[in-house]
Design a protein that fits this description.
Strand order of the largest sheet: 3-2-1-4-5-7-6
Bound molecules: S-adenosylmethionine
Number of helices: 7
Helix content: 25-40%
Structural class: alpha/beta
């Protein structure tokens, strides 16, 4: 089972803003700055697709984007977004089932892994690792626990809420950091926000 956010598209962005203000958006804006011109980009779990419009503000043309989102209602909203002159292929499926037939300069996983069990995390990680070119950039943001009590409370509430509403599978954060280091990725940028609960990291594949 994967972590579909089906049926949440109509409230997801508003709820995220209500709880986190601009923190989740800013984490992704930080990451987008690392995308070079004319790159081939794979975005996985882009939600309602606002990230496409922000990326288009930085690169109105020249990008070749593959946008993979498993929830149909999220995908429907994403397709409405302004993507300028960039070439975008939309794929409504779980990314682990998708073989785009090309390798990417950049992979973007914005708050994707924190919904997964360890098993799904490893499967998705290795699939995306294979799709990224050597020397390519992997932009990842997720929640992290740094020992503050309220982080654990907020995380538990999120898991409970999204399990009830959308049936997500996770009940604890997967250890994505270990997967990056086991696969010899270099951290070339990082930014923390919301009392260090939100971590945005820029990795380079060797
Ligand atoms: C926590 S939401 C984050 C949405 C968006 N990145 C944001 O920050 O607003 C995770 C998104 O990943 C999508 N998703 C979950 N599992 C997926 C998978 N296996 N393949 C593609 N998309 C997936 C969900 O449907 C959801 O839209």
């Amino acid at each position: 089972m994967s972590a579909s956010y089906k049926n949440s598209a109509w409230f997801y962005d508003r709820l995220s803003r209500l709880v986190y203000g601009n923190a989740l958006i800013n984490a992704q804006l930080y990451l987008l700055r690392f995308i070079p011109a004319d790159a081939t980009v794979l975005i996985v779990g882009g939600g309602t697709g606002w990230i496409l419009e922000e990326l288009t503000k930085l690169h109105p043309s020249g990008l070749q984007i593959t946008y993979v989102e498993v929830a149909a209602d999220m995908m429907a909203r994403s397709k409405e977004r302004n993507t300028g002159q960039n070439k975008v292929i939309f794929t409504n499926d779980a990314v682990e089932n998708v073989n785009p037939g090309l390798n990417f300069d950049v992979v973007v996983t914005p708050f994707l892994f924190d919904n997964f069990t360890t098993e799904t995390t490893e499967k998705v990680f290795h699939h995306l690792h294979e799709l990224l070119k050597p020397g390519g950039i992997w932009l990842n943001c997720d929640f992290q626990l740094t020992g503050k009590w309220w982080q654990a409370v907020l995380l538990k509430s999120m898991f409970l809420f999204f399990r009830l509403i959308c049936g997500i599978e996770a009940s604890k954060l997967p250890d994505v950091r270990s997967l990056f280091s086991a696969n010899k990725y270099l951290v070339i940028g990082e930014e923390y926000s919301y009392g260090d609960f939100v971590a945005a990291k820029v990795y380079r594949k060797r």
